[in-house]
Design goal:
heterotetramer, A: alpha/beta, Aspartate Aminotransferase, domain 2, Aspartate Aminotransferase, domain 1, 7-stranded mixed beta sheet, 12 helices, about 15% strand, globular, B: alpha+beta, 3-stranded antiparallel beta sheet, binds pyridoxal-5'-phosphate
């Protein structure tokens, strides 16, 4: 298989799995237990917490382990909403957030909170001026993702966080697509909360974390025992936490090289793709994007068909976001950027990772053009839609 | 997710393309919903002698288009009208529940093409050219 | 190490770990992905769901995977509270619930819900008549645990569920301590919801499930993508789900034998312990208890001290519940049974598992009496308290 | 969780037991809180010549009891009164934050025992027997 869907999930690094196994079988103690085996497990959890904190330049007490990115997003939105209810009931997010943020905001709307969905420009970026205008006295939280999972577009988090803080509003960023891929410094970004998920960077599924800046208040959403400093209850997933710690260490040492190698692979691929297939656009090509992501729009052709034809050739890619691919809706990210619905149905996301080689991409460049041609021949669509302008 | 038959029809769709001077053309669906199907029919003496399709859509949409053309070729228009979305889906060994709406599209496309044929037959212009 | 804290957590069965590993490294696809690797992962998740459903005689659609017992408990309490808000705002739980239920109920009280905490008799059991009296027109949920984690006492779930249903009230049972240890049939128990956690029966940490009877309404607490039938969002923890499936299979085949072997070990141990140490009580010895659990009260001595002296001898046990052992409060379970606080501070829980041998317990019987003697010599307490009566 | 020194004093507590006809006895804590400490002092000319303890409590309670007796033996009562919970905790290379209250208990036990000693010395009965 040529796997080009690293934004959906990644294989767990073998070094990560090896580090995890003893915590299933030998050092299986419960970190809440006072005896040696329990305290050893606790120490392993503490060490992983230190590694995670170091990666994003936070302190250990600011790291809360969760079951993944979705839970982290839910925790911060719901948690701040509950804790700051007295201060206000208004939340601001962007319209291109992952469903984990988007649907949590919608759930809060159902509970009586008020939500502003900031539009993005044709390049998929939030305009800081829009945020400025959207903040009200009763605004309690702004949540804007660090990089978009479909297009890879980076949002101007630093600027946005400053604007929120000028008005005394807490700022969260969903960094599920950037943690492990890019160096991150929470102080430099200036955020109060940051979500991440291990399986997006060669760590295990089922574990993630929330960075919550010292002193910020939010109401825990899973309560019980006094785990995670009382902020998230449940017996710690020790093996996965240990695995996350190792994944973080590996990212810290290998990230820099991968940023260069990956970007070159991706850029070369995009260039070749544009000349191999007519009437194709790479979304937001002209703006700052995650180095591993290419969101490709292919006119007149529907995404799932392309995806499955590629699958027949042993190539794994996605259309829209992985989470919504079992639904029938077009990508809300593309619609938000001003693309017509038929275009939003015709996207293919190539997301590269550390096992991607130029050979893999050459294979794609060989098999993809005939697939597009075949599907276009089948298509009744001709020139019924056009794309919004874009700086390429 | 998809049955082998769906995959087979999706990979090797039958009767792709259009028919020049078709006796009936039916266009259904909407690009904003992600599915557009155009059905072209050649009809002689109320018997469908040829059918072709063009489809923008998912694997289920393409497979149901392909299967529909196979099912109706050789049938009279009345027989073809009795083909329901269930018939098409069953002929494909079933469709995933969230994809059932695609088989409705196929049924609708057949109906639309036959309607088109009938309206032409009934209209004086059509009669004149016959 | 002689591990006698299986109620806190268990080692993951080697067969479980072996089944999990390929889903980290090779079959790492995201079950939401449409290509082959994704659909294979989806199939693995579906197969595990079938196994879990079979174990408790439910149907697959009634099983929702969560990150563990705590999340399952939170989901049902919070989820029913939100969904049934129009019907009423009253919830009934017992006073000996695990903190995962207890503290969720308290969180709901803070949000304006009203909670009745049913007392238990001196044997730790809820009296069905008490439940009958506690139900009000505005009651929306009753949550009583299947077996208590500290004492092992079994609650009369069948009877209690009938009473709740007679008044049209939903019934939840926290079966974290019984699933995998005892055969369970949700229809026979008559419950609408049931929580379980894999790491309590040789499955991996970080995965559990909630059984929610077809047709019952509750509001999801973690939203995002449309995973788990829209009832719990987040990329599926595929390796852990597969592991849970294997653990369930193993439990189904090995449980019966273990129930006989374990009970004999435990009963012999209790008898020997009672004759080896004076002024010791085994809590709720006379009533139906989990076959693997012995909650021992030792007069004049504090629990943590006994625990640590046993740890020095390589024996791992707990005092109170594992989750609260880092807090200073005495066991709320013992207090609820009517034991004085000094007694509630002096408990040691031995919980046996499938790797426990009679040799292990013999060792305990050798080292434990001198530990008690040493600590009693240090203690200023003499006869300042006595235990409530109990049928032995 | 605990320092090696705490473990060592917990495993091998010094000066366990009581002193018959102690010059000062201090009992602090409460069984309902899970901690009871009784400190027995032998005092000659305001110098603590012997100290023993009985403790019901956790490892931290036992270790701080043991350490306290070591710290005060040989000290004058005034010197002993200057021993704070911090002194005891530091002598044990620290205690986990949630266990710091145990070291307060030790400080309190010393104070209570000395108070008892002083009240006896001041009372006529005590003087008479001297
Ligand atoms: C931007 C973003 N946020 C949140 C998530 C959810 O993370 P998880 O699947 O670990 O719950 C994802 C991935 O699915 C994502 O790409
Ligand atoms: C009865 C009971 N309920 C809930 C839980 C919580 O389960 P978990 O630790 O998997 O979240 C436990 C164990 O800690 C338990 O014993």
């Amino acid at each position: 298989m040529i796997y080009l869907d690293y934004n959906a999930t990644t294989p767990t690094d073998k070094r990560v799995v090896e580090a995890m196994i003893p915590f299933y079988t030998e050092q299986f103690g419960n970190p809440s237990s006072l005896y040696t085996a329990g305290q050893e497990a606790k120490r392993a959890v503490d060490q992983a917490r230190k590694k995670v904190a170091d990666l994003i330049h936070a302190s250990e007490k600011e790291i809360i382990f969760t079951s993944g990115g979705t839970e982290s997003d839910n925790l911060v939105l719901r948690g701040v909403a509950r804790a700051q209810k007295k201060k206000g009931n208004h939340i601001i997010i962007s319209s291109i957030e992952h469903h984990a943020v988007l649907n949590t905001a919608k759930a809060l709307e159902n509970e009586g909170y008020s939500v502003t969905y900031l539009l993005v420009n044709e390049n998929g970026q939030v305009d800081p001026q829009d945020l400025k205008r959207a903040i009200r006295p009763e605004t309690i939280l702004v949540s804007i993702m660090h990089a978009n999972n479909e297009s890879g577009v980076m949002e101007p988090i630093r600027e946005l966080a400053v604007i929120a803080h000028e008005r005394g509003v807490l700022f969260h960023t969903d960094a599920v697509q950037t943690v492990g891929k890019l160096p991150i410094d929470v102080a430099d970004l200036g955020v109060d909360f940051l979500s991440a998920s291990a399986h997006k960077f060669y760590g295990p599924k089922g574990i993630g974390f929330l960075y919550a800046k010292k002193g910020v208040r939010f109401t825990p959403q899973v309560v019980g025992g006094s785990h995670e400093g009382g902020k998230r209850a449940g017996t710690e997933n020790v093996p996965a936490i240990v695995g996350l710690g190792v994944a973080v260490e590996i990212a810290a040492t290998e990230q820099k090289e991968e940023m260069i190698r990956g970007r070159k692979l991706r850029d070369d691929f995009e260039e070749a793709l544009l000349s191999a297939i007519p009437e194709v656009r790479i979304v937001s090509r002209g703006v700052e994007r995650l180095y591993n992501t290419s969101l490709v729009l292919v006119k007149y052709v529907e995404g799932e068909s392309m995806l499955l034809y590629l699958d027949f050739e042993g190539i794994a890619v996605s259309t829209g976001s992985a989470c919504s691919s079992s639904s029938l809706e077009p990508s809300h990210v593309l619609l938000s950027c001003g693309y017509p619905e038929e275009a939003a149905h015709g996207s293919i996301r190539f997301s590269l990772g550390k096992f991607t080689t130029s050979y893999h991409l050459k294979k794609v460049l060989i098999v993809f053009p005939p697939i597009v041609e075949k599907l276009r021949k089948m298509s009744p669509l001709r020139d019924v839609y056009s794309y919004p302008p874009q700086a390429d | 997710m998809y049955s082998e038959k769906v995959c087979e029809h999706f990979r090797n769709p039958r009767n792709v393309g259009n028919i020049e001077n078709a006796d009936g053309v039916g266009k259904v669906g909407n690009p904003t919903c992600g599915d557009v199907m155009v059905m072209y029919l050649k009809i002689d003496d109320d018997v469908i002698t040829d059918a072709k399709f063009e489809t923008f859509g998912c694997a289920a949409a393409i497979a149901t288009s392909s299967m529909s053309t196979e099912l109706i070729i050789g049938k009279t228009v009345d027989e073809a009208l009795r083909i329901t979305n269930k018939t098409v889906a069953e002929a494909l060994d079933g469709l995933p529940p969230i994809k059932m709406h695609c088989s409705v599209l196929a049924e609708d496309a057949i109906k639309a093409a036959i309607d088109d044929y009938r309206s032409k037959v009934k209209s004086p212009m059509a009669k004149a050219t016959k």
